[in-house]
Amino acid sequence: MNRQTIIAANWKMNGTLNLVNEMSNRLNQVKLADGVRVIVCPSFPYLAEMAVKLQHDNIYLGAQNVSEHEKGAYTGEVSTTMLREFAVKYVIVGHSERRNIYKETSLQVAHKVQALLAANITPILCIGESEQERMAGHTETVLAAQLQPVIDEVGIEKFNDVVIAYEPVWAIGTGKTASPEMAQETHQFIRQFLAEKDVNVANKVPLLYGGSVNAQNCEGLFAQADIDGGLLGGASLKVEEFSQICSTVKGS
Length: 252
Ligand code: 13P
Hints:
Layout lengths: L4 E6 L6 H11 L8 E6 L5 H7 L5 E5 L16 H6 L2 E6 L2 H6 L4 H13 L3 E6 L3 H5 L3 H16 L8 E4 L13 H16 L3 H6 L2 E4 L7 H5 L6 E4 L6 H10 L4
Parallel strand pairs: 1-2, 1-8, 2-3, 3-4, 4-5, 5-6, 6-7, 7-8
Helix pairs in contact: 5-7, 7-8
The site of 1,3-dihydroxyacetonephosphate (13P) has 14 residues, from strand 8.
């Protein structure tokens, strides 16, 4: 099954204007394999500059969050319309940091996915279990409970326009990557869960792995049948390491 391979950079609350310049200069020169696309998601204030600086046919701009509301009295929030003005094509939603620190619920995440799809922006929907949940054998239940409200809200066929990122919370920023086999097993579950609703959609949706991915471990992870690329945090802030990962990843 030919699926798009995606390497996405989640800068989180990191980076500077200087990094925007350095990273975009470097990425503009990267040669990507056929079928590979790269998405860079800096913080909101850097989107405008990044939109001008990134000039590569297969490298896209993304954001890290969006409001589920269209406009109005929501101090501090950013709408899909605003993001579209800066050529944002992807938005990360449901990151575990948003769920855990900012108490975003799966229902709210579903509303954000809906808002993005209505604006023709592709959601990168993050799901993942905590260490306790994995230890208790609840991984699949947790992932299903994070996916189902989104499916209920937008309908399974809309997942043709969604990217899913599986990020086990215990692997984020810890250096404790899931082994390729463990990640594959969970990705397979996610694809199977979607296939029970729609096989074609399940075969098409890109499933990214995230959690301490770096230049050393990415090859083994991305070689897995159901892993279609990665969502990178720490490694995406390092110009040489990130561009090396992008230029070496194979298309599917
Ligand atoms: P790290 O790559 O730093 O573990 O972060 C992963 C992540 O949360 C990407 O969204």
